[in-house]
Amino acid sequence: MNIVVVGSGVAGLTAALHAAEAGHRTTLVTKDALGGGCTALAQGGVAGVYGRDDSPAVHAADTVTAGAGLSDRRAVDVLVGDGPARIAELIARGVSFDRAADGTLLRGREAAHTHPRIAHAGGDATGAAISLALVSQVHASEIDVVEHALLVDLLVDDGTVCGVRLIDRSGPLEIHADAVILATGGAGRLYAHTTNPVGATGDGIAAAIRAGADVADLEFVQFHPTVLTTGDAFLISEAVRGEGAALIDDDGRRFVFDAHPDGELAPRDVVARAVAARAASQGAPVRLDATMIGAGRLAARFPTIDAITRERGLDWSREPIPVTPAAHYLMGGVSTDLDGRTSLPGLFAAGEVARTGVHGANRLASNSLLEAAVFGARAAAAAGDGPRATHPAAPGRRSPAPAARPDPLVPDDQWRDDLDQVSLPQLMWDRVGLLRTPEGLAEAQAAIARRRAASATPLTRSQQEEANLLVVAEATVAAALARTVSVGAHHISRHPALIGA
């Protein structure tokens, strides 16, 4: 078998290694240098290390609760069932998770977890440690690596995916394959404020949509509640709150308890909305108070965060630091079954690009690296079986097709002109962000449809990225309009003044 894997985060690296180790000729395509993307930026860790009174069943229950009841229970059972083996595999491949003096893995706790079960490395550098180890394994293998190559489209022959069309530094490039595994990550660059790197432009999702693959749950975009307001977006790990840090307003009050009895350890969608609402009402960012943890513990447990905050003139061991929500993770994506198969024969997906059903309406913290490793391995195994037809979209979950024409709810030409001058990321932040209204979604849909109608065939890498973002934006807005009730990360606000807060 000739297998092409697109993406070099934990999902892509895992899939490529498993495919190569199974004896398949494997090509790994990556948009930037090998090991780029979101994985290396992940701070928190990998959920799935169980202690006293904890178990895969409890982990599964926490996942379903965080997902607002919309998680696919079969997929969750696969996640927690395969999880320990994948964590053991990461250790065997050279990931040095942090350990206690007796040699046992240290376990952190994050929001919506009932127990500490998160393995971490380098304190708050888990993603970097995983990326480094897996990249080293790829270099030592016979995997062909194509770097600095942007996915343009999938090659499809008689309804079966048979390769990829790329742009690399030399120009257009086609690679033919018996199976393609998408591991291209999410689309955080849809939003003006995001924790994602510049390459997160939804390339795999857009290519899959253009090829006719089913996508689902694109309306569920997770906004991380604690991103520094000073300088470029920098995430303050949820694990900091797991260690005891508190979110406070200008009066020093822990306001998140007004929204949920778990306060700062409530599901991310709840905390993010509470942070946005309180910041809007007081006219200033809320603050994260980690002073009770102590300077020594902060530096030892969170060395990366400690260094960055101090570089930006903040001493978080002495004073609370200002934070705000930002787009972080896409729960939806290309629909897959439990083995990464999509609705197109020959096409598989794993990681953030995929909608496995694990996350439902809201991702449980530190499940993403685990999901990528689990389903990256499963996708590689299934791809080795050859291209064959797969599952239909789950009932009631498939994202609707984009509207054929602009929605008529744009109120007047002046408003339309103003909206058309706004950048796509700002439009998405204002109208399709943390808080949404039906009117705002309709306005965004109309503006995006006009932009797509006026867009030309992309000729450069940057133009292709812009085209991909437009495709994903259109599908995201259509999905958000179709879901008329609030659930999880999709929140329909009746208070338009808070939009964009």
Automatic annotation (TrEMBL):
Entry keyword Oxidoreductase: yes
Entry GO MF terms: L-aspartate oxidase activity; steroid dehydrogenase activity, acting on the CH-CH group of donors
Compartments reported by the entry: Cytoplasm
Domain Fumarate reductase/succinate dehydrogenase flavoprotein-like C-terminal intervals: 424-491
Cofactor(s) this protein requires: FAD
Keyword Flavoprotein: yes
InterPro entries, A to Z: FAD-dep_OxRdtase_2_FAD-bd, FAD/NAD-bd_sf, Fum_R/Succ_DH_flav-like_C_sf, Fum_Rdtase/Succ_DH_flav-like_C, NadB, Succ_DH/fumarate_Rdtase_cat_sf
Keywords: FAD, Flavoprotein, Oxidoreductase, Pyridine nucleotide biosynthesis
Family indicated by similarity: Belongs to the FAD-dependent oxidoreductase 2 family. NadB subfamily.
Name of the protein: L-aspartate oxidase
